[in-house]
Amino acid sequence: MGDTIKKIEKEYMDVVCASLKLIIKTLKKDTVREIIRVLIIAQKPITAEEIIEKTGLPKATVYVNLRELERIGFVKVVEDKKPRKYTITKFMKKLLELPEDQEKEGLISIRKLAKVA
Questions:
Q1: Which pLDDT does position 21 carry in this prediction?
Q2: Torsion of CA 107, 113, 115, 117, to 10 degrees
Q3: Digits of tens for pLDDT over the chain (117 positions)?
Q4: Domain CATH number, residue 97
Q5: What is the C-alpha separation between 57 and 64, in angstroms, rounded?
Q6: Phi-psi region of 80 (alpha: psi -120 to 50; beta: other; left: phi over 0)
Q7: What is the pTM (predicted TM-score) of this model?
Q8: CA torsion angle 117 54 39 44 (round to 10)
Q9: What domain range is 28 assigned to?
């Protein structure tokens, strides 16, 4: 029984570590941080086209990054009809509220972007 619990704990920690690595890798991208900045400043759901307009990023880049941000739980679609509208999630808002001593690599840049808004 003890070995089974240890195995489950290890598998769980492997999943958590992989998720954190994906989050950090995603947040290191300038394009991702720019998209998040635009969503924060907008303070309301906006379309991918509006993000493209405000950032000047290529359409494919915006859509790929929005999918990544959705997958890690930082952005959500609030209107599934066309055109879709995107906004940051409650989870992302909570991360932006982290005390300075709890910030990790990648989140620091996001907090600085939030202060600009």
A1: 81
A2: -140
A3: 678 888 888 887 888 777 778 777 887 888 998 999 899 888 899 999 999 999 999 999 999 999 999 998 899 999 778 889 999 998 888 777 755 554 444 455 555 554 444
A4: 1.10.10.10
A5: 11
A6: alpha
A7: 0.72
A8: 90
A9: 2-116
CA distance 95 to 100: 11
CB 68 within 8 A of CB 31: no
- Residues 32 and 26 sit within 8 Å (Cβ to Cβ): yes
Q: ω into residue 83 within 30 of 0, thus cis?
A: yes
Total residue length of the chain: 117
* Count of domains observed in the chain: 1
Three-state DSSP at 46 gives strand
Calpha distance 61→51 (Å, rounded): 11
Report the alpha-carbon distance of residue 60 to residue 78 in Å, rounded: 20
